[in-house]
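Subject: sequence -> structure tokens, single chain

Hey, anyone have a minute? Need the predicted structure for the following. Not urgent.
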Amino acid sequence: MLMFQYLHKRSLVIINDAIREMRNYSNEDYDLNVNPKAEMQAHTKLFRAQRNFYISGFALLLSLIIRRISTLLSQQGALQAQNEAALKQSTSRCDTFFLF
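Reply:
Had a minute. Here:
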């Protein structure tokens, strides 16, 4: 459980950093049409920031899904154990009832 909390916090920090970079590079205050190399560099940095945002968001989503699946699997295991215990208890009571 502690590992998932650490991963969620780390993913949120990475997403916030990607959002900050996207805002920084999508700022159109300066003229990039003068130098095509500068324009290409700015678009490359914006593309990388957007890519990092999508990758980190997808990683956060998958970690939430994995956490939910692991919770459901542990609950299912506990319910199966309870079911088997109740079944054994009922069969033993039934056997003792028929002995009398």
